[in-house]
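ok so I'm stuck.
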Amino acid sequence: MRMRAVTALCLAALAVTPGGAGVAEGQLADAVNRKVLRVCATPANLPYSNEQGEGFENKIAQIVADELKRASVEYTWFPQGTGFVRKTLTEKRCDLVMGTVQADEFTLNTNPYFRTTYALVTKKGSDLEGVTSILDPKLKGKKVGIQAGAPAADYVAKAGLMPDAKSYLFIVDTRYQNPMQDMVNDVRSGEIDVGVLWGPYAGWYAKQGGEELHVEPMLEAKQPGLPALEYRITMGVRANETAWKHEINNVIAKRQGDIDKVLIEYGVPLVDEDNKLIAEPRYPKSTN
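replied:
not stuck anymore, here's the structure
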């Protein structure tokens, strides 16, 4: 629906072009800097990004810049949450948001460059290792950690685990609070038996700060009335910059294997459209 509305607005604009001359898609003026890659990002938000360039979004941004032959990557830093897109991309302080959920209403989305899901974090060797569903009877009587307001919280409630669950904040300024790391540390200490956490955070923090934990992607069957747990992650551009979107789509298609390699190295659980785990980078098959 949103894309049809954008198309209608563009056609209306063309209808009043002086002399009736049409403008081909992609020839409209944009604000994209063609010398450097200008990226909007969140500071202190590992494993995604930080100002030292240590996150997987930092690495993938460099892949994009290299493929487009940009001289460098330049960042506009802004805390995640309300106003992020409006104060960065919309104000033309940058040209690309690295990680957006497909169908994000605030941006024009590229093709997805990965698909991931929530995960269960447990101690290695525990009787919960290998559980892939929050609805598994093995979790009855266990103490679960969950971020209040996260889509996975609905599954915790359906499983009847909320009365004994420990709640963590969902939307925070990661420069000052890190409930994701707190949850994983609580698994290590035994404060909770299992953490239900967004996959990229689960994969990263399970390997940071002490005993390595087990991460099991949640491969839930679709439950009526409950939200999806798997999401396609795209990059975002401004609504009128269709040609720029196509440039980024071409990069994603060409460098998918390199992007996958980065994500796998950071412990991001990758799943395909059939909810099968992706264990190896998807490089193009050799035709030789």
